[in-house]
């Protein structure tokens, strides 16, 4: 399965001669939102504790073998040190290489289970990386949520009432 999953897709290679700076969409974005800037900011212990306590304990463990159940049960003890670690990553703009590892499991999609093409890969990440991703997601979403159209709510948590088109 590993060889199949590694070789089944092509990896796009970026071209150095691709310049989108003059594209009309980019120009419009710069015109509307050029004054905005974003950067990640450190978080407080209570916020990391809230994320740890909301972990689903029955999820699979990644390559680090630290289960969400252990993180949830020990959340009050590890929230402080984990917050320091996460804030150090934010301040240094780094992502630890061990958090980039995953266990890839083949999941059957359809038809015959004896054909490798009928499987899809699912990556099981480390639980601590998921906590860090949640912190980053919340900060990015908070920044862009007011910039998104009210009509883009199909896959987002609805925090405001979508505008309806009138006839």
Span of the ends, CA to CA: 53 Å
Largest sheet: 2 strands, antiparallel
Structural class: mainly alpha
Series of secondary-structure elements, N-terminal to C-terminal: HHHHHEEH
Give the strand tally. Answer: 2
Strand order in space, largest sheet: 1-2
Whole-number mean pLDDT: 84
**Whole-angstrom Rg:** 21 Å
Uncertain regions spanning at least 5 consecutive residues:
161-167
Task: Reconstruct the topology from this structure.
Layout: H1 2-7, H2 24-33, H3 45-53, H4 68-73, H5 75-92, E1 102-108, E2 119-125, H6 127-144
Antiparallel strand pairs: 1-2
Detailed description of the structure:
By secondary structure, the protein is mainly alpha-helical. It has six helices and two strands. The chain has helices at 2-7, 24-33, 45-53, 68-73, 75-92, 127-144; strands at residues 102-108, 119-125. Strands 1-2 form a two-stranded antiparallel sheet. The model is unreliable at 161-167 (pLDDT under 50).
Task: Considering the chains and any ligands shown, give keywords for the structure.
mainly alpha; 6 helices; two-stranded antiparallel ribbon; disordered C terminus; single chain
Task: Give me a quick take on this structure.
This protein has 167 residues and is mostly helical. It is built from six helices and two strands; from the N terminus they run H-H-H-H-H-E-E-H.
């Amino acid at each position: 399965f590993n060889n199949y999953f590694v070789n089944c897709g092509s990896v796009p290679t970026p071209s150095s001669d691709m310049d989108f700076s003059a594209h009309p969409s980019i120009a419009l974005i710069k015109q509307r939102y050029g004054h905005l800037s974003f950067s990640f900011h450190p978080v407080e212990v209570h916020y990391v504790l809230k994320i740890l306590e909301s972990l689903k304990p029955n999820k699979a463990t990644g390559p680090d073998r630290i289960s969400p159940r252990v993180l949830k049960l020990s959340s009050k003890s590890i929230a402080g040190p984990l917050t320091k670690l996460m804030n150090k990553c934010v301040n240094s703009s780094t992502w630890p290489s061990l958090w980039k590892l995953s266990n890839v499991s083949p999941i059957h999609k359809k038809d015959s289970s004896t054909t490798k093409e009928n499987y899809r890969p699912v990556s099981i990440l480390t639980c601590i990386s998921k906590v860090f991703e949640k912190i980053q997601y919340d900060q990015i979403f908070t920044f862009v949520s007011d910039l998104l159209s009210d009509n883009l709510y199909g896959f987002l948590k609805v925090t405001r009432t979508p505008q309806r088109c009138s006839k």
